[in-house]
Amino acid sequence: MYSPSVRVHFCGVRGSSPAPGGEFVGVGGQTSCVAIAAGDGPPTLVLDAGSGLRNLTRALDGRPFRGTIILGHLHWDHVMGLPFFAAGDRPDASVDLMLPEQGLDPLDVLTRLMGPPLFPITPTDLRGDWRFSTYTDGVFEVGPFTVTARDIPHPGGRTMGLRVSDGRTSIAYLSDHSPHDIGPGADGLGEVHPAAVDLCRDVDLLIHDAQYTTEELPHRSSWGHAAAPYCITLAKHCGARKVMLYHHDPARTDDQVEAIRAELAASSNVRVEVATENLTITL
User: Fold this and answer.
1) How does DSSP assign 115-151, residue by residue?
2) What is d(CA 234, CA 25) in angstroms, rounded to the nearest whole number?
3) CA 184: distance to chain centroid?
């Protein structure tokens, strides 16, 4: 009998900063964090550690986290959940934290983000068994998953797109992506460049930066994010089976996010959905 191979839990889906308030509660206001579980087990692989990481503690239902957190890059909205991750900050937790290679000791880099005078504790004050390492462009194994990492354009520090596969199911994660930095592409929204194609070819699920509208992009082109229609262009080119709009602008209300999704769905045959906080998808 077939059993689902992968569960994807969207712990945080907002970009740039948290978005509190009633107009945002449907999509969710916590920042980037996606947890992945193999089979019926608990999540053991986490992509990014934004404020949504707090939601993973609730999803684990009293269990410690034992697994790997991979940071796609080091901007605040992707790391601010680390000191508040209760399931990882306990004596029986075991956490491998990986960040893109910076040419510096990873713990030194993280302590710049999390340590006095900016924060009262450092990463080494987190309880449990925490290990800190780096990764670079390439392929590596994390538990039952094979992870492919590729450098993708996003200003302000090295940024990786990720592809995760258990050998049967594949997920592409490009949370912060500015393809127009490479060139305008055929539609003016950005190049369908080799790194993005490598990550997204024939994936079952494409989780992609959809922070801007086409109209907003020219005024925010240096801010490091994609226009939502680029997700569809990339999905068509690569044969992605489903697109999840992700990294929503912090000012984008629930109704506005849904309007973007509806417009994209009506104008293409690509299956497109909105990534919402605490949504779980089984693949």
Assistant:
1) STTTSSS-GGGSSSEEEEEEE-SEEEEETTEEEEEEE
2) 29
3) 24
Beta strand ranges found along 166-250 (DSSP E) = 170-174, 205-209, 243-246
Q: Are the beta carbons of 240 and 203 closer than 8 angstroms?
A: yes
Residues 2-46 pLDDT 10s: 556 899 999 999 999 999 999 999 999 999 999 999 988 999 999
97: part of which helix (H) or strand (E)? strand 94-100
Residues in Cβ contact with 176 at an 8 Å cutoff, skipping those fewer than 6 apart: 15, 72, 73, 75, 78, 154, 159, 209, 224, 225, 247
Interaxial angle between packed helices 254-266 and 228-238, expressed in degrees from 0 to 180 and rounded to the nearest 10: 40
Which of 266-269's residues contact partners 24+ apart within 8 Å by CB, and which partners?
Answer: 267/232, 268/232, 268/236
